Amino acid sequence: MRLDQSTWYEIEAYLEKSSGIIIPTGSTEQHGPMGIIGTDAICAGEIANRGAKIVNALVAPVLAYTPAPFNMDFPGTISISEPLFEAMVVEIIEGLTRHGFSHIYFLNGHGANIAPIERAASHFPKTQFKIASWWSFDTVNTLRQEYYGDWEGMHATPSEISITQAIGRNIEPGLAKEPPEKLSANFMKQHAGDKHGPAGDHRKQFPDGRVGSHSALARAEHGQALLEAASVALAEDFTKFLEAK
Ligand code: NI
After folding, report:
1. CA-based, 20 to 30 A from 196: which of 31, 77, 162, 183?
2. pLDDT band, very low/low/confident/very high, at 245 (cuts 50, 70, 90)
3. Distance from Cα 34 to the centre of ligand 1, integer Å
């Protein structure tokens, strides 16, 4: 059930049965030579809607404008500062809690969103929160490992591009045909949560926009399987989240 496709009467009726809502969060940023700008928002939105359908949960509109300052030297990227994004999330939570939502689940598709969402959530001690990135579910991780191993990398990943191929555009690899520079385990650890440097340096270091990800390994069939695994995992995790106090 989608919030934007519901009437207020329907939301009032939903609140009599459930106080839980899923908010998908993505980004608007470059995803390499064969990944579309909306990749993160599209993946999170689709998984949230599919997962919600399984358990009759409510899904809020996708938050697609988020922080991605490190990608600002690539045309098409739009980055919202962390304080502004955090403040927006605070006001969204205020709106939802006012209406009676007490269990708010963020289904995330962009690493840099996690820290500001956590800070925003910390303002609401009486509300239950969960923040989960779709790729971190066990069943999804198993598929990512099986399909791509180390070539999953960190950005413009074959798994996220597979999902957009399954439901949207399928773009020829072009420059992404060749594998990117492989990342060290240390680099991945230090840059987890999209902790990248200034935009100029980032583009210099990763000129085509891929960060250790071999995007060309993406397949629409993989995308279907990843969507299926992620939405089932989300449905289960959301149910568990509602049952916990
Ligand atoms: Ni992404």
Report:
1. 162
2. low
3. 12
Element (H, E) at 105: strand 103-108
Q: What distance in Å separates the CA atoms of residue 71 and residue 78, rounded to the nearest whole number?
A: 8
Domain range list for the chain = 3-243
Q: What is residue 207's three-state secondary structure?
A: coil
Burial of 170 (0-12, 13-18, 19+ CB in 10 A): middle
91 burial via Cβ count (<10 Å: 0-12, 13-18, 19+) = exposed
Q: Give the tens place of pLDDT for each residue, 61-111.
A: 999 999 999 999 999 999 999 999 999 999 999 999 999 999 999 999 999
Q: How far is the CA of 244 from the centre of ligand 1 (A)?
A: 30
Query: Cα of 157 to ligand 1 centre, how many Å?
Result: 7
pTM equals 0.96
Best CATH choice for the domain 3-243 from the list 3.30.1060.10, 3.40.190.10, 3.40.50.12780, 3.40.50.10310: 3.40.50.10310
